[in-house]
Amino acid sequence: MPNSRDSESHPRSQAAGQTEQRAHDRSESAALSSHRPRRLRRTPGIRRMVRETQLAVDHLIYPLFVEAGISEARPIDSMPGVSRLSPAMAAEAAARAHKLGIPAVLLFGIPQQKDALGGESFAADGVVQQAVRAIKDRVPELVVITDVCLCEYTDHGHCGLLNKEREPHPYATLPNDYLLNDETLTILQQIALSHAGAGAEIVAPSGMIDRMVGAIRTALDEQGFTECSIMSYAIKYASAFYGPFREAADGAPQFGDRRTHQMDPANAREAVREAELDRREGADLLMVKPALAYLDVIYRIKTEFPELPLAAYNVSGEFSMLRAAGDAGYLDAAAAQWEVLTAIRRAGADLIITYAAPEIAELLDAHA
Ligand code: PBG
What letter does residue 122 receive in the DSSP assignment? Predict the structure, then answer.
């Protein structure tokens, strides 16, 4: 096919070099016309052979909400198809996930009692600790990861201790209710120890407290849990996409927000700094959260730290908006969810935490 550059529009009076240029253009266009990318999209078999990104059940982590003192599953309105479970029901759900080939669950706890210090978070018989044991009893092969944070356990809904609970007021230069850093670390250490003690293989601190990874690593090592891994929510943004989760886990802050510790959504270079610090403090795996609005950050972290396994959290808001659109008939939610998870993998995530893990595992199985 001739293209416009081959046309006879050049005045004959122009330099002789132009004849040569035209000959070159012609042979280039002949070469280009032999390129037909559609050949490699022609059949499902060929597409499968040249697919660059794989999404497999091996990459999925399934989050579960366990609530103390309930005897029936409690559906979460803002997350269609997701419920709060008792520890025994969580073990059932974990067994189903295992059967589908999902390698790991991530546990969140909702306690019976909340208080200023989040005491139930590190109780030996706390709801997460019970769930870990129940799951390990039922499906020992399934990897158990636990969320290490205080927001579901404190009556004020913040991720640690606030600058008012201690007398005398410890930090006069910090405002009242400022989330205290190092005081919170001590509690995070106790939570991580209690989860490791119950049998969790991986603890996942999610509070964006400075030096949380180093503090937890030290405590675990000192108590003989050298083999317990840390998956750090290294890069966690102050995101509106956590909305449904806060109903799910009853962890909304009663006042204020989390902007003094979670990252500003506008920042990406700072993500590299956060990842570097957590790597140095001994994180075994890194996480970027949320995933869908932060694909560039996932790509950047994978590029800068290729040696560390990288997880991405396809958070509650990302999940619920697809479900809602699917329920309204605007799109095919399962197909869109597959596409989103594939995009997260393509950006560079090794692992994806997703509430859709069971449905996607079934979908992948059906297409295998
Ligand atoms: C904190 C925590 C949150 C999520 C995971 N861990 C909420 C928050 O930081 O406000 C959000 C997960 C989701 O939205 O799916 N423990």
Answer: G
**Residue 245 alpha carbon to ligand 1 centre in Å:** 6
pLDDT at 1 over 50: no
Pocket lining for ligand 1, CB < 6 angstroms:
147, 149, 151, 206, 242, 245-246, 251, 258, 315-316
Mark whether 289 is an active-site residue: yes
Report which ligand 1 atom has the smallest distance to the Cα of 241: 14
> Omega into 168 within 30° of 0, i.e. cis?
yes
Rounded Cα distance, 151 and 240, in Å: 16
- CA 21–ligand 1 middle distance (angstroms): 61
The tens digit of pLDDT for each residue in 283-325 reads 999 999 999 999 999 999 999 999 999 999 999 999 999 999 9
Cα of 328 to ligand 1 centre, how many Å? Answer: 26
The catalytic residue among 99, 114, 136, 236 is 236
Distances (CA, A) of 125 to 1, 9, 112, 130, 351: 75, 84, 12, 6, 30
Assess contact for 81 and 63: CB atoms under 8 A.
no
Q: Which residues of 242-275 are buried (b: 16+ CB within 10 A; e: fewer)?
A: bbbbbebbbbebeeeebeebbbeeeeeeebbebb
What domains are there in the chain, each with its CATH number?
55-367 (3.20.20.70)
The two three-digit tokens of residue 328, written as one number: 């309204």
pTM for the model stands at 0.91
164 counts as catalytic: no
